[in-house]
Structures
1.
Amino acid sequence: MKKWLLVMLAFSLILMLGACAKKAAKVEPVQEPVVEKVEEPVAKVEKPVLSEEEIFQQKSLEELNKDQILKRIHFDFDKYTIRDDMKSILQANADWLLKFPSVEILVEGHCDERGTIEYNIALGEKRAEAAKNYLVSLGMTASKIKIISYGKSKPLVQGVDEATYFQNRRAEFVITKK
């Protein structure tokens, strides 16, 4: 019985020591604060929208003429009167020219290949003059418009059919001064 008592005593001692022992502190993981990435708005640099005046001032005469701001008109065979379907083109040309009163232009008269050189030079001059007069009637200053005739010497397209002839019977508008 002594043995048994000793076992019980040892057992009780173990229980007491276990109960009195320091309890390990429960360590909970520390949560890092959630940091949201805030992107600062980047100011978009947009190209400024240029006015028609600013665009005009930036371009050279060559660029303006290459852009064909002033559209050509065409004529009927052996005629120099302005066709009804060409009047709106001349109106658009005049509207643009009136926005820029410093501009001076050259109106070139052209013909198709039919007829003599002399006849076509005279006809080309009448076509250029008719275009000039129409622009003047729309408010242009006559002194800002010069004319020249190339007759049939500068065809726009080559060929011997009516569509080709029509393309070559024309007045071209060239900006000569800003």
2.
Amino acid sequence: MEFDVVVVGGGPAGLAAAIRVKQLAAEKGAEASVCVLEKGSEIGAHILSGAVIDPKALAELFPDWKEKGAPLGAPVTEDRFLFFSETGTTKVPSWMLPACFRNDGYYCASLGNLCRWLGTQAEALGVEIHPASPRPKCSSIPRAA
């Protein structure tokens, strides 16, 4: 099988890359064949963690991500930064936290569910997803001239 673009790994970054390639091709009126190789039995099978997600990148891919049903859970409503010791905890006041520790506008989500959703969006755009694919050996990938 031949493809214009092969993405190895069906995680958030790989799926976003595949989606964006198809979007860019469509914007130019061109066709690009894109394939995602995933070693797991299905997209999201190896993504087990929860996360706090800034939806900015998702909104760049899909401005209508809420209407499309992206599985971002509850919005973050409060940040707590605690120091633990043998005798208890001490809360750091919010105003003392650097901006990178503030999660206003972010969402709690399962990365596995987000990957599965991204996989369905990718397939809707024509991306071929091949789960349970072993990783290719570097020697089997042709080099550009």
3.
Amino acid sequence: MGERRPEGPPDPSRRAFSVWLWRIPVLAALAGAGFGAREVWRVHFSKAAPADPPRFEAREPVSVAPLERFAAPWDAEAFVLAGLPCLAVRLPVAIPGSLVIAPADAAADAAADDDATVLAGFSRICTHLGCLVDLNLDPEAIAFAFNHRGDAPQLTCACHYSVFDPRRAGRVVSGPAVQPLPRVRLRLVHRDGVAMIEADGAEPPP
């Protein structure tokens, strides 16, 4: 057998490297946990509130639909404003930025009832990752598919299950989205005796 060489004094730099080497996974785990906690807080407790009042940017006006298409609450019409997919929906309550039409302002053949008609416009681009949202009229289907229990229709994104409440001006009530849906400005015009809804502005995207 060969002669065993005497070991020299321990190398402090190697010892320090070994100490830090086992700390790396611990630090990585702590960083991951911190990031996860931050995301949980952001997604579940930091939903942004819609602006009150909204700040609309002017767009080239487009026709949405005759007022008579909105005869009852939750009647809705899809349209495109300056390349932006949008939705106009009749709501049971007024929200900041909504169009409130008194019966006297509507054409005689367009008034659905004696109450004011409240219309609101929303962008259909989900503020999470840009998928299209739709008006879901079935609260039970929303509870089953989107894990959000409510008592009214909602604007839902099927890509990642975000839910926006039109009665709360498009605020996120469930899912990974944080920013509310941008609202669209609607107006009432009369053409040849027919009450028409137009869109002529939108909130900037978040």
